Amino acid sequence: MEYEAVIGLEVHVELKTASKAFCSCSTAFGAPPNTQVCPVCLGLPGVLPVINRQMVEFGIKTALALNCTIAPICKFDRKNYYYPDLPKNYQISQYDLPLARDGYLEIEVDGVKKRVGIIRVHMEEDAGKLIHGEEPGADYSLVDYNRAGVPLLEIVSAPDLRSPDEARAYMEKLKAILEYLEVSDCKMQEGSLRCDANVSVRPKGSTAFGTKTEVKNMNSFRALHRALSYEIERQISLLERGERIIQETRAWDEQRQVTYSLRSKEEAHDYRYFPEPDLVPLAIEQEWIERVRSTLPELPDARRERLIKDYGLPEYDARVITGSKALADYFEKAVSLFPDPKQVSNWLMGDFMRLLNAKGLEPQDAPVPPEGLAELLKLQQEGTISIRIAKEVLEEMFATGRGAREIVEAKGLTQITDVAQLTAIVEKVLAAHPKVVEDYRKGKEKALGFLVGQVMKETRGKANPNLVNQLLKERL
Amino acid sequence: MEKGGFKSLELFYLSAHEAARLLKNKEISAVELTREILKRIEEVEDKVKAFVTLTPEKALEQAKAVDEARARGENLGPLAGVPMALKDNLCTEGIRTTCSSKMLENWIPPYDAFVVRRLKEAGAILVGKCNMDEFAMGSSTENSRFFPTRNPWDLERVPGGSSGGSAAAVAAGEAFFALGSDTGGSIRQPASFCGVVGLKPTYGRVSRYGLVAFASSLDQIGPLTRDVTDCALVLQVIAGHDPLDSTSADLPVPDYLAALRQDIKGLKIGVPKEYFGPGMDREVVSVVRQAIDRLSDLGAFCEETSLPHTEYALPAYYLVAPAEASSNLARYDGVAYGFRLPGKDVVDMYMKTRREGFGPEVKRRIMLGTYALSAGYYDAYYLKALKVRTLIRRDFDQAFEKYDVLVTPTSPTVAFRLGERVGDPLAMYMSDLCTIPVNMAGLPAISIPCGFAQGLPVGLQIIAKPFDEETLFRVAYTFEQATGSFRRWPEIGGVA
Question: Of the residues A41, A89, A446, B184, which has the fewest C-beta atoms closer than 10 A?
Answer without folding.
Answer: A446
